[in-house]
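Why run this: before we spend reagent on co-expression, it is cheaper to look at a predicted model of the complex and decide which construct boundaries make sense. The entries below are exactly what would go into the expression plan.
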Amino acid sequence: MRKIVISSLCALSLGVASFNPAIAAKLSGTECLAPAGAGGGWDFTCRVPAAQMMQKLNLIDGSMKVVNMSGSGGGKAFSHVVTTRNTDEKLIVAASAATATRLAQKVYGDYEADDVRWVGALGMDYGVIVVAKDSAYKTLDDLVNQFKSNPRRAAIVGGSSVGGWDHIKALLIAKEAGIKNLRSINYIPFDNGGKAMLEVISGRAAAFTGDSSEVIGQLKAGKVRVLAVLSDKRIPALGDAKTAKEQGYDVVGGNWRAFYAPAGISDASYNNWVSAVKSVAMSPEWSDLREKNGLAEFTSFGSDFDGFVRNQIANVAAISKELGVTK
Amino acid sequence: MLLHGFSVALSGLNVFLVFIGVFLGTIIGMLPGIGPINAIAILFPIVLQFELTPASALIFFAGIFYGSQYGNSISSILLNVPGTSSAAVTCIDGNPLAKQGRAGSALAMSAVASFSGGVLSIFLLVLFAPLLSKLAIDFGPAEYFVLMVCAFTALTSFSHGSFIKAVFSAILGLAIATVGIDELSFGGMRRFTFGVEELGDGIDFIVVVIGVFAISEVFLFLSDMSSGAVQKVAPLKSVLLSLKELKDSVAGILRSCVTGFLVGVLPGAGATIASFLAYNTEKKMAGDKGNFGKGDLRGVAAPESANNSSAVGSFIPLLVLGVPGSETTAVMLAALITLGVTPGPTMLTDQPDMFWGVAASMFIGNMVLIVLNLPLVKLLAKILLVPRWILMPLIAILSIVGVYVLNGSEFDLLLMLIFGVIGFIMRKTDFPLAPLILGLVLGGLIEVNFRRALTYSYGEFSTFYDSPITIGLWLITLFSLVAPFAIRKLKNRSQ
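The model came back. Tokens follow.
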């Protein structure tokens, strides 16, 4: 099946090489750029679904090199790709909702979504709103009412900076609830989701906004309760936690795991990467690894994914403007 | 259960991993600029390559962790080049000792103190882990803020001569810490970045540490050479440690171990605060009788014991709560997540091998550390016999490589040079370097926690003195400031 996909794509785009499609399609000396240090989401995206899976499924020739380039929340890697690797056909870069958030907020300077090509996504860490096990807030409504009546009494904590993706998720709910002054929501950032969660468990903070993979451990240990999952359907790993939608708040949001490629590569190479990511996303091996890492199923490729990213950037840009994060 | 742990730790593969981890860690740690975090990041792909189980991976990481911490002390003592901010404290007395020909003693003391601190704190880990994990939860932003204030009292210990100079040096450190994007403000305000894109992430403390310590050392050598006043290193003395020296430092090692362990348990406080607090305590305890700052073995023992036990302590939030207690354990946890471990308190039950296996492996690792390193002490000390005109260019090269490996940034190299010049001027004019490191490390933490605490309390300052923990910490702070004077007064009166 995989070979058929690849070869038919090749036949479409690379007529000349079609006499030996399988070989022509496979890239050698490939590289995945993780815009952060070893360990962590972007590094995982490069090491597991890209390097490990693509080699295992024989989608690339030989092994894939993983390079870590941390700096400016992914901005260093983004500008590196645009300025010096723009035509590198063998390069893909790990990306996530944080990438889109920062593009929307102009954290990467003047760079835009157009400056790269969006390849595809293969997993989603859905957002959650969590409270301590014995918290007085039983439903999302309880928390939202508190936000409306006395937001300063209800500090909400998360692992991203002010205006970061965790903050934005909480604000999307506030906005949906009709809260006008989004800056009244008392968000306090911590170094990572784990530390922020301790603030909720200790009772210092009212609620936690983060990703589902961050809370599964604490949930299993009975330390926290999930008020809402920001997904279309309930997530098995979170037990009987209700979605925000079920509770009347139409907010869906998560941290997707994806790749982009340089803008200057040929359509053939781009399609090659798209089909490679697709093959990984559809493989049973990946769905196993994905679940182990607390990621829900989410796939989007090629031009669909490009549209998805643009849509998210527009949404985040709008809410950031309201918040005063960006002008 | 610890027996079960030993059965895990003593499996052939795990013993091998501990050994390799400690060995590689020591070597990597000796290189300037490369501390445990980088060592783990560099060696992480090995874990994936060999598809290690999470328990084995963590055992490997732990070995790298204390191996590289010990390795760091070697370069701190011999070359005055610390690889981490916590090892900067070891330099204060370790390097003068080396220059007096007592490098062997300092290295041996460092090995003994690291070993004792490490092993004792493993007992504390096994006995008190669940209890202490509650401390990690109870420690909120207000408590952290007061702890940092308490750590700042250590400043009084680092002013040989002028207290004003120590304060100035600390303020410079605090100022450097403010550079970069302010994550707590709307829109991420850029502070003191002067339009330079690279300064957005702030200035990495390793760049500063290498600059002010290592590069300034090279500059000092150059200036000595041009004035023809190259100082001779005293000939190596053969005696490693006398029984009396060991006896004198036992109490300090024990105290520092407990301090280091408790500070290590707190997520985010870390080895640097532990080292500074331990050094401060020991210097104050010694009073006028100590030779602290000019080469006192106890000044090596205290930070070495403290930073090793804080390393062990930082595993408690990781293993019991599933929350990283330091940057190093954060990298470890991220790596474990990649291996499919669900972070959180269920790690203890999901991965029963992990807690006891790691605890037992720490015993073995510390053994390996001392067995591997004590015999090497004499050999390592001989590095000082290498002529300085060979050693100095080597330090320069290693520093450049170490800093470049950090972020792959040429800009960091430029910063390193600038800080080298600053360090050179400070040393020539007798400004102490340690307070700068203290200010730099605490600056970010103290500010962020101050603002978090006030956001919680909506501007109410009482949050800083309304819990038993904060009150206790204020009392310790006060005691640490007043006690030395009070003791001196009492002594004078009795004479």
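Residues 148 and 179 of chain A are 7 Å apart (CA to CA). The beta strands of chain A are 31-34, 65-68, 91-96, 116-132, 156-158, 187-189, 207-211, 224-229, 254-262, 300-301. Bring this page to Monday's planning discussion.
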